[in-house]
Amino acid sequence: MTLPALLALEDGTVFRARAFTGPGEALGEVVFNTAMTGYQEILTDPSYRGQLITMTYPLIGNYGVNAEDVESDRVQAEALLVKEHLPFPSNFRSREPLGDYLKRAGVLGLEGLDTRALTRHIRNFGAMRAAASTELLDPEALAARARSIPSMAGLSLVDRVTCTRPFRWRQGRVVPLSSEELKNPWPGAETANKVVVLDYGVKYNILRLLEERGCSVLATPASTSAREILDWQPDGVMLSNGPGDPAANPEIVQVVRNLIGLLPIFGICLGHQIIGLALGGTTFKLKFGHRGANHPVLHLKTEKVEITSQNHGFNVEFDSVKDPEVEFTHINLNDRTLEGLEHRRFPLFSVQYHPEASPGPHDASYLFDHFLELMEAHRRR
């Protein structure tokens, strides 16, 4: 059973729809994702906190959901907007329909939307604040509610998705640590590369790939100080993906600035933007962001094109990083924006895209191997 619903944008544009998850309301920034599959990974990606996701592919839900393909412990998106929802999935891995999954999570799902018109509107006028509701069906009042919420520019959302206490990632699952265990968080890891992951909204697959490469992984809250990290004596630091405006996190930027040159550092997405800020650069908000699969990125050293998965609404300004020791390594072939950098003197590098989710599928796996090389060199010092 579906319910009548409305989606209203801050500029007054209204789309009629039907809710396939029951009554509800959602507020946030409306964006679009061009991937044909991966809706469960998208929904559970903490980088989507504060956003209503429009899927450009018209039929969503045909393979259901399962317990393995999650990127966090909950649905993170504010709402899912689709042309057509399929309530009867057909896949041997499916454990429940998408609609039931969203309903259990208390997340609004809308279908019957003209997602092509909505995507074109966002491309023309930019991602914008939106309100979706089955309860408030007055278009003007709903648009006014959309205008009442904070803009994504200037908004810090990391504190809403970061872990509240450190945890180890062991055998594919989260293992919380007690205060006593934190005094020695690496038991039995003498021969492993010990990695501290600063959790800005880390996707589980980043942790999975580190563990697959033999790393001992400790994820910590975004507020963890440089002193605490150094006291744990890790071999490297991973700066994770996450939501919101990177420039709204000056304390996090300062922590990273204090770590540069002391440990190997690898940044992904928001982690890349934080590194750019820590190196003296600036960030800006993209008109409608890069979200989806099969985005072409040129690796400037090898002149190879990598097929990448992306999810970001902000970017590091090319001309803002003045340090002559910083080399730009990757560029987006769609709009020529910066996709990667590294430091010539310090063991530091980052990418704007998501190597842990490459639809290549292995085009970007070398980045994790490079991180291991930097850590092993650090261990031998």
Q: Can you give a write-up of this model?
A:
The chain is of the alpha/beta class. The protein has two domains: 3-148, Glucose Oxidase, domain 1; 158-379, Rossmann fold (3-Layer(aba) Sandwich). It contains ten helices and 20 strands. The chain has helices spanning 39-43, 98-105, 115-125, 139-148, 158-161, 204-212, 226-231, 250-259, 270-278, 366-379; strands at 3-9, 14-19, 25-33, 51-55, 59-60, 79-81, 84-85, 108-111, 128-133, 167-170, 173-176, 194-199, 216-221, 236-239, 265-268, 283-299, 304-316, 326-332, 338-343, 348-351. The strands form three sheets. Strands 11-10-13-12-14-15-20-19-18-16-17 form an eleven-stranded mixed β-sheet, sandwiched between helices. Strands 1-2-8-6-4-3-9 form a seven-stranded mixed barrel. Helix 8 crosses helix 9 (270-278). The protein is globular, with a radius of gyration of 21 Å. The termini are far apart.
Secondary structure elements and pairings:
Blueprint (H helix, E strand, L loop, with lengths): L2 E7 L4 E6 L5 E9 L5 H5 L7 E5 L3 E2 L18 E3 L2 E2 L12 H8 L2 E4 L3 H11 L2 E6 L5 H10 L9 H4 L5 E4 L2 E4 L17 E6 L4 H9 L3 E6 L4 H6 L4 E4 L10 H10 L5 E4 L1 H9 L4 E17 L4 E13 L9 E7 L5 E6 L4 E4 L14 H14 L2
Parallel strand pairs: 3-4, 4-6, 5-7, 6-8, 12-13, 12-14, 14-15, 15-20
Antiparallel strand pairs: 1-2, 1-9, 2-8, 3-9, 10-11, 10-13, 16-17, 16-18, 18-19, 19-20
Helix pairs in contact: 8-9
